[in-house]
Design a protein that fits this description.
The protein is an alpha/beta fold and 267 residues long. The chain has one domain (11-248). The protein contains 7 helices and 10 strands.
Length: 267
């Protein structure tokens, strides 16, 4: 039996592979806002992807990621507030315009705009730290059925229902590239200075489906690739990627703390 071709996924094909439902008008965030007269808190968490839109194939996943980010931060004893997406986006666009209007502003980048935005936010609330998260699509490298990307390793998801198909899947080392979701988190102090930036892998977006070709004297396996409907269902896996992105700013949770975070309801 010949070896299957290496798994090759072009990022341009992700929209076809990932069957997502219609997206909400804006990324999911809590309703509490520092701009709504709420009590001062220690940490301001910006909505997902304030600086750049969420990729369409991740919009359905954004509420899951946000929930686990909240759980992870609260497990570290942080008191959280946020700003609604439309307000945060307006602040961001205004900050870009502000820094670019200054002499030499054409050289201004993300850190400059973030500092200007945080200065604006401080007029409405006090906070010690700002957490700016974004989710995006990247590529994972698969070798020996293990996918590696952005600081994480995950077993490549393989669907093989029949005994023959499972035998084929067990005997062939899958290698190649596959689309995956990650989170990028930047942490600033209360005056807008960057103190942490990291990335962590969240989930593979596709699975390998193995079937037996019933035709021919020596049937060859058929490999098909499709979206993973349950890619963002495992909160523990999502929190692991978030922990990687926030390290070393936040230390990994102890097992007891991680269990508490998994069970903790969102206020």
């Amino acid at each position: 039996m010949t070896s299957p071709p290496a798994l090759r996924f072009a990022l341009s094909a992700i929209a076809m592979l990932c069957a997502c439902a219609s997206s909400p008008d804006e990324p999911a965030t809590p309703t509490k806002s520092v701009l709504a007269g709420s009590a001062v808190q220690n940490v301001l968490v910006l909505p997902l992807n304030v600086a750049s839109p969420i990729p369409p194939d991740l919009e359905q996943a954004s509420p899951h990621v946000w929930k686990e980010l909240e759980k992870y931060l609260r497990a570290h004893g942080m008191k959280l507030r946020t700003v609604n997406y439309q307000t945060a986006r307006q602040f961001w666009l205004g900050s870009i315009q502000q820094v670019r209007s200054k002499p030499g502003g054409n050289e201004a980048g993300y850190d400059d705009a973030s500092r200007a935005m945080i200065e604006k936010l401080r007029k409405h609330a006090e906070f010690d730290t700002v957490v700016a998260p974004s989710i995006y699509i990247t590529q994972a490298t698969i070798a020996e059925k293990v996918a590696t990307w952005d600081g994480v390793e995950r077993s490549a998801p393989i669907e093989a229902h029949s005994l023959a198909a499972r035998a084929v899947a067990d005997g062939i080392p899958l290698e190649g590239l596959a689309p995956a979701a990650s989170i990028h988190i930047v942490v600033f102090d209360g005056t807008g200075n960057k103190i942490q930036e990291g990335r962590g892998g969240l989930a593979l977006l596709v699975e390998v489906r193995v079937k037996q070709n019933p035709y021919g004297p020596d049937p060859e396996p058929v490999f098909q690739f499709g979206p993973r409907p349950s890619a963002f269902d495992d909160g523990e896996v999502l929190r692991h990627g978030i922990a990687v992105a926030l390290s070393p700013f936040l230390p990994p949770l102890l097992p007891s703390e991680a269990q508490k975070a998994a069970e903790e309801p969102i206020p």
